[in-house]
Amino acid sequence: MPELPEVETIVRGLEPIVRGRRIESVWWSGRPLHLARPIDLRGLRAVAVSRAIARVRRLGKYILVEVDGPGDAGVVIHLGMTGRLRVQPGASLRAPHTHVVFGLDGGDELRFVDARRFGWVAPGRSLAKVEALADLGPDALSGFDAAALAAALTGVRAPIKAFLLDQSRIAGLGNIYASEALFRAGIHPATLARRVRPQAADLLEAVQTVLAGGIARRGTTLRDYVDAAGRRGDNAAALRVYGRAGQPCPSCGAAIRKRVDAGRATFFCPSCQRLRR
Ligand SMILES: [Zn+2]
Prior knowledge:
Elements: H1 4-18, E1 23-28, H2 41-48, E2 53-59, E3 62-67, E4 74-78, E5 83-89, E6 98-104, E7 108-114, E8 120-124, H3 131-134, H4 146-153, H5 160-165, H6 175-185, H7 200-216, E9 257-261, E10 264-268
Antiparallel strand pairs: 1-6, 2-3, 3-4, 4-8, 5-7, 6-7, 9-10
The chain binds zinc ion (ZN).
């Protein structure tokens, strides 16, 4: 699933290509997307058609396509598990699983392709009032300082791994970068979040470092992810624990372990990340 660095990489690739271009049409495949729901095609057309794209930006794992005009209207996109965004000539063949297409002036198309259809595309008549965005916590890359993270950890009885995945507490992390950050900070994933408070500065440094590294290497491609130009990311080779169960820890040589909590796999070093209760 694309996390903050993958979404950021896509946004950085799209922005210079689509900024200033007018949206002329919106097409939908008719297939339901996230939660088996239809998309709001009328709503999308109402906010987007005949408007120019003012900016593309990221909020947590969401992509916001802001349009010109009064207010703060735009389109909200979540990539789900396998969503991709590409800008391609309208005359070119559409890839299988193309579900939403924005026709742009000049003839190109911004295409949303999603094989598993866990992603979604929705209109925001006011982006500030879109519920999913309003519920997001501060951005994992830029929204915290150590004191703010310490405050957010205070009193939280959930395991730190669950805390890091909770988008309402900290936005942008998923399984891969949460596992990598906990390894870097030397924190066992099952440690209660409130117990991590004294290490908030270390944890924040670890989170920001793994995210910045992921962006610098244009994202992690394990299977599906590609950037806005269709290229795979290079970060998979830089992962230290994620997906490496049984391999030696790069710090101490102990075998990396995998544990599954609530259906989510976590990878950690049992020696470098000791559980403190
Ligand atoms: Zn180790």
